[in-house]
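Human: I hope this is not a bother. Would you mind checking the protein record under this note? Thank you for your patience.
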Amino acid sequence: MKLKSFDEFLSSLTEEDLDYITGNNDDEENNYVVKTTLGDPEAFNKLGALIAGSSFRMCRRLLEKYHQWIAEQLEK
């Protein structure tokens, strides 16, 4: 069996999938906010940590959806 391309996976994603991946529908508990000012010497470290954490979460969720998609393709 030939596996479909990654582009086909991307085109199969729904708005609901994209909202899940990006965290648009996360509740307050899972929605991270950095409360700081530019005068805070740790501001850029806090912002960098937020970006890194968000990026990791999105990558993990995308990989989760991709794994589910591949499993579905192999069942066909």
About this structure: The chain has a mean pLDDT of 90.
